[in-house]
Amino acid sequence: MALLQIDNLTVQFETSTGWFKAVDGVSLSVEKGEVLAIVGESGSGKSVAMLAVMGLLPWTAKITADRMLFEGRDIQKISATERRALIGKDIAMIFQEPVASLNPCFTVGFQIEEVLRIHLGLDRQARRARAIELFKLVGLPNPEERLGSFPHQMSGGQCQRVMIAIAIACDPKLLIADEPTTALDVTIQKQILDLIMDLQVRTGMGLIMITHDMGVVAETADRVVVQYKGKKMEEADVLSLFENPKSNYTKALLAALPENATGDRLTTVSDFFDGNPEPAPSAGMNGVNA
Ligand SMILES: Nc1ncnc2c1ncn2[C@@H]1O[C@H](COP(=O)(O)OP(=O)(O)OP(=O)(O)O)[C@@H](O)[C@H]1O
Ligand SMILES: [Mg+2]
Predict the structure, then answer these.
(1) Mutate to test the pocket of ligand 1, among 44, 101, 227 (most ligand atoms within 8 A of CB)
(2) For ligand 1, what atom is nearest to the CA of residue 51?
(3) Could you tell me the pTM of the whole model?
(4) According to a count of CB atoms within 10 Å of the terminal CB, is the N or C end of the chain lower?
């Protein structure tokens, strides 16, 4: 049984010109212990799809799915109370903007201790001890003093470490990391990525890594879903994707990697992609499973 299995997820937002499909019939699954990367350009619906799973989209979003199973249970059908008990505990997310995702009005210590209080019911002393342990685990210096800091008193990298500590506080079975390194300085990016991967290996949790960086995909993923304009373009294990990409969009993503650059300027996806995600018919491939 897959840890998470989503079938035919569609998320629509109402606009002045009608309903806009931010996610259009996406199906994907993650096994226990597996790392699934979701890759695609800005606006392709990566975050929205995962926020739908978390139940964190505004009520104006119209969400439909044939199934959204977590450990075999359809999370569309459980009560609000059951969902609250699941989210933040068994399914946790590292949000795209570390600083904006923390509450500016409370110390980071309070914010992590709240999670421990609500989901695990720990008393004050146990909460503090566990919070310090978690801050140590994510590599925050002076964890005891840090508990008393407000988000604005910390750097982006430190806020990201706090976010990770909060996400893993209750030993989630599934962690969704939404562009966990893009908001950070390049020197910190690798440290944070290594930290997440180390935690994943150590705990055996399932991990969904949302990124637009094929380098991050190569370094972390077992399997990859390529998304374009809300649709799944392609799904493959990581080696097949890099060696034998099927859709034109994936080929363009790979061609735009800096190491594949020819000439004296960096290339972009649009240098290789004319907007038609399907492979050309003459190529004899029909492997796009959108
Ligand atoms: N609350 C909302 N109301 C209306 N439209 C929204 C809302 N949230 C997201 N969208 C739209 O849905 C589309 C998909 O957005 P999403 O944030 O999932 O993209 P993304 O793939 O995560 O991009 P990025 O790589 O920039 O994070 C975008 O066109 C976005 O403008
Ligand atoms: Mg996003």
Answers:
(1) 44
(2) 18
(3) 0.91
(4) N
